[in-house]
Amino acid sequence: EAQPLFVSGGDDYKIKVWNYKQRKCxxxxxxxxxxxxxxxxxxxxxxxxxxxxxxxxxxxxWQSRSCISVLTGHNHYVMCAQFHPKQDxxxxxxxxxxxxxxxxxx
Length: 106
What we know:
It is globular, with a radius of gyration of 13 Å. The chain has no helices and ten strands. The protein has strands at about 5-10, 15-20, 25-30, 35-40, 45-50, 55-60, 65-70, 80-85, 90-95, 100-105. The relative contact order is 0.17.
């Protein structure tokens, strides 16, 4: 059964994983150096994607509570990022006026 979880990120630079039935924060993950814009769970893997005004996208393993990848290359705030539903890809959009597709396979 799926756990009643959701993930948030904010202007405190923290990724927080919550149990919404218990209405409490289960744990916090640190790594971004500026405001966090979006956070999403992966549909299959125990991963979270986040993007930030620090110009990076991060992939986290929420089971081990650690950052497993930092994607760099944008030259301005990264406003949104999301996992591809089927392939090992990430797409991101930034105020640098680019949309990027990242291969996170292997």
